[in-house]
Amino acid sequence: MMKQDDALQLAVAFLADSQRDDEPPLAIDMERVREHNGLLIVPYNSVQYLASRDVREQLLDCWPILVDLERGDVRFGTLEERHLWRNLSN
Fold first, then answer.
1. Where is the Immunity protein domain positioned along the sequence (predicted)?
2. Model-level pTM?
């Protein structure tokens, strides 16, 4: 079983590798990282939004990064998995 700190580092690297040149700078939303059923759920958003929490700055459709704590697999969440992060309390 992977430690949460190690899984979080995988998510940070995954986000950096997936960042497109035409996107605003993105960062992990550390306040909302959660573990659920063996997955580390790692939300992210624009750096500007995370600094202000102003909903006008929030990016839409930021599916969180999911890290399987057993296998270390890292990927973006899917629409079918939306219940995993929508039902968690903030």
1. 6-76
2. 0.88
